[in-house]
Amino acid sequence: MESINFVELSGSVVDIYSTADYLAITLSIKKYIGMAKGDRNIKDYPRVVWYGETANKLADTITKYDNVNVTATAEASLMTKDGKSVRRLIFVGKSIERARTKCEKYFELKPAVGDFSDYINIVRLRGTVIQIFMPDDTADFAKFVLKVAGVSSYSYPEVICYGHSAEYVRSSLSADESVSVIGTVQTYIKELENGERERRSSIVCREIAVNHSEE
Predict the structure, then answer these.
(1) Structural domain span for residue 177
(2) By CB atoms within 10 Å of each CB, which of 6, 98, 146, 201 scores lowest?
(3) Strand partners, 187
(4) Does residue 103 carry a pLDDT above 90?
(5) Cβ proximity of 10 and 23 under 8 Å
(6) How far is CA 101 from the centre of its chain?
């Protein structure tokens, strides 16, 4: 069964960071997230990175506060930090285009000032479960690592589950099982003592299903 690794985001550009090697764009996305501690309306700030010639072209066309639609892949690998193995997750851009406003979408009128068509934050993964992490029975979450297709090789994103999804992982999910996952990107930003910011992204599971073998 074909592996799937697809990220779709739609939001407002709040930061652009460009170097000779890459271009990083941070989006602001309104989203509704359900977690064990209660549902709440929040914003998230995923960062998408482009490399090479594509990055150079985008640097001249994308500006701050643009409303854009982005597609990307979730690229995850292990790295060592402070003597510990840490799973690093980045989103590598595939496409980007200006998002349509609601007036454009429904009335075919432009320019329009205000909100835009839709905020989108969805991750689609299909692959093989490599590892499962289950804290003690009192914890309200569980995690697992998937092997999926990446940009040049395989990617190993970690998926965090809450509520019913976590219960399913604890009771029914097994390593080497083939599953499909619908999730969202969640970004954690921590202020360090030196004044810098540490950014950590994760994929939060919304739905999970076991893939049926193809006859």
Answers:
(1) 4-210
(2) 98
(3) 201
(4) no
(5) no
(6) 23
pLDDT at position 100 over 60: yes
Average pLDDT, the chain: 85
- Return the pLDDT at 110: 76
Q: How many domains does the chain have?
A: 1
Q: Name the residue with higher pLDDT: 132 or 197.
A: 132
List the one residue out of 153, 151, 154 whose CA is nearest residue 127. Answer: 154
For residue 123, give both structure tokens: 């991750």
The pLDDT score that the predictor gives to residue 42 is 67
Q: Is the pLDDT of residue 33 over 50?
A: no
Stated as kind and residue range, the H or E segment containing 52 is helix 52-59
105 membership: H or E segment, kind and range: helix 102-107
The beta strand positions in 82-168, using DSSP E, are 84-98, 120-133, 141-149, 154-155, 158-162
Contacts 24+ apart (CB under 8 A), 51-59: 51/21, 51/22, 51/23, 51/92, 54/93, 55/18, 55/21, 55/22, 55/23, 56/23, 58/23, 58/25, 58/96, 59/16, 59/18, 59/23
Distance CA 46, CA 33 (A): 15
The reply to whether 138 falls in a domain is: yes
158 belongs to a structural domain: yes
The H-or-E segment that residue 167 falls in is: helix 163-171
